[in-house]
């Protein structure tokens, strides 16, 4: 059977009334349109849309989605147009193809802001018709499957993007198998050394594991049926990425990860799920704190199941998930499961209701003007587990793991959050930094005088709270800047014999603002307040005859932040290797928290009294700084300065390994300036090295070399503050 026939058979199986002739036509159109084009592998191009359509049919999506999968690259890569597709295949399919094409055109890799903006567009597209994203996910899955044909730089970029955006999206949409496959593929290209080592270890123990799985499966099945719970039991090893995450999180070697195998019990009714849980707990000792009831409290992606962990038949910890067949379908197919036999518009409303989190996500971010922050907070919402807590009235709220009462307050209402002064959890007063636990009942204490402050940003975990807090803090700073800016301009004008009020009234200040490419006089005042525009620049526009005349020295430093900038006028050429937008004589220091290297994406912040501090774009600390203080900085290619970085190497605690590691540094021509080595109780060693490198490429190459050493479990760039 050829691939197309496969797809047609699949569709007819889950949707007997499907219009397979339409799918056939879509295939013929795509195959003609892509005629003569080949993939990197040398295969005819049409094999890609075919593969994508196949994945879509595995997700059991409707005919329109399958057709869109076949046609998804036509508009982008061939002479076909959206109009043509509308005419031939109807509005719906053309809309889907158009949506996928637009998503594909977003240049993800360029800048972080760009990336964030694109992500926002993607979520918007998803909110309009979620099938666009589902088709895109399938497209990405096939691209990841054939990633080995691409050059290494591309592999790295696409894998990173998959890990950051697509896998979490698949997870959020509840499509477990796509998430798992995307993660393992991305893992393979992001940490090739670690991946290979782990894959090898898993393969080595395969026979033994299969044996064990069969035994335990049989045992569970036996106990369940003996107690009146009809079921199917299946066990499987967790995927590599999740084992790797677990190893890193618990700081353990592969051999010590005992719950790498999960067992799934699929039964018929809710009652049998709970009965099955009882059987499991009666037969084996449950591990406290590991039981979760996602049947009563489904995850926002609609996932339902009972989870528990017990000391299994061989004295090892095992994880057991118990669910009904429907729940199992939702667990595997997520949102796609809801398509099954339904088509058309009725779905849209239902879909929207069930995926309310999507709309909430969009709403929470409307106020975020800064795309970088948007991306960061969306990531926060996409990743992570939830805790379920209650309002005093018994309404349940799902919040991310680690959330505090402030998050809860904002989840209730933004005014409750803004004035949150304390909280009572289960009747007891707790500090605001208290981490919410499953089942807590929370009552927020408000006070009219309370307002958000900077420290709250360190506590909160939800995008919503973070956004609201930043918004208010920024508003306050803006107000301060207005007062400061007005004061500065007023004084400067007075010196030249002009009155502020008059200049404003006559529109001269507005005109000056326009000349400086700012919206209006108000904006100009604010910019002067922040120190981004100097009064000298303003005066020059308003009092042209003052141009070129030296400003009195005392007037030089100004603005809320720039007032404290120290200038080094004697040194024209920057030696830091950093160029600050428009100024080359500013003191630059590199933030210790993230130690940026040439090649890293960076941003600068004006710091009181210390010039400009340069952070990496993805630095957590930098994201909490006021964006108004941000200045554009870029690497000055010519610099040859060495930069300090900290590298953490996790390895087996074996004699001689440290020598190999240190030799690797030497081979790479990198000097270790400080080292800290610590053996853990479980036979591993954590080594942290401080070293000086030229740039990001050199750091990457040393990390690669270290990862390849036998016995090394993981290599990470860490904050130099950890040493
Ligand atoms: Mn494609």
Explain what you see.
The structure is a single chain. The chain is of the alpha+beta class and 723 residues long. Helices cover 49% and strands 16% of the residues. The chain has 30 helices and 21 strands. Strands 1, 2, 3, 4, 5 and 6 form a 6-stranded mixed beta sheet that branches. Strands 13-15-14-16 form a 4-stranded mixed beta sheet, with no helix packed on it. Strand 7 and strand 8 form a beta hairpin. Helix 8 (112-128) packs across helix 9 (130-145) and helix 11 (176-190) crosses helix 12. The longest helix is centred in the middle third of the chain and has 33 residues, at 463-495. The model is unreliable at 340-348, 364-369, 550-558 and 560-574 (pLDDT under 50). It binds manganese (II) ion. Residues 48, 72-73, 139 line the site of manganese (II) ion.
List the helices and strands and how they pair.
Elements: H1 3-14, H2 20-33, H3 47-58, H4 63-71, H5 74-77, H6 82-89, H7 91-105, H8 112-128, H9 130-145, H10 152-172, H11 176-190, H12 192-204, H13 206-226, E1 232-237, H14 240-250, E2 261-267, H15 270-283, E3 285-286, E4 292-293, E5 306-311, E6 317-324, H16 325-333, H17 346-354, H18 356-364, H19 371-382, E7 386-390, E8 396-400, H20 405-412, H21 414-418, E9 420-425, E10 428-430, E11 442-446, H22 454-459, H23 463-495, H24 500-505, H25 508-515, H26 521-530, H27 535-542, E12 578-580, E13 588-590, E14 602-607, E15 611-616, H28 620-623, E16 630-631, E17 633-635, E18 643-652, H29 657-667, E19 671-679, E20 684-693, H30 696-707, E21 712-718
Parallel strand pairs: 2-6, 13-15
Antiparallel strand pairs: 1-2, 3-5, 4-5, 5-6, 7-8, 9-10, 9-11, 12-17, 14-15, 14-16, 18-20, 18-21, 19-20
Helix pairs in contact: 1-2, 1-3, 2-4, 3-4, 3-9, 4-7, 4-9, 6-7, 7-9, 8-9, 8-19, 9-10, 9-11, 10-11, 11-12, 17-18, 19-23, 20-23, 23-26, 23-27, 25-26
This protein binds manganese (II) ion.
Manganese (II) ion is lined by residues 48, 72-73, 139.
